[in-house]
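Form 7-S
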Amino acid sequence: MNPLLEQYAVSTEFPEASGAEQIEMLQMRDRLLAVESTLSNQEKNLLSQADRRLIQQAPQVLLELSQFVDLAAERRTQDIPAERWWWYLDVLAQIQENTALSTALT
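Output:
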């Protein structure tokens, strides 16, 4: 099993981790993107599960992360494409919030 993948998967289990640790997690995901095509099917499945967990926990992760970095500014500064969606947790959290509000109003 890819050790970086294992570390990333474990990191997604702790949305309350410090913002510094969350930044490291996003950087790990960047490194995984570079080797994603070499992962086994089992590893790709684990990556998919960890990604889904991160997406679901975007609002909680963002609480800590936003104390250390402005994701929108970081994306502009580093010209981060949408392909690296994990740097768009603020957008994902907003979508989740809007969906929850819309559901509550219906």
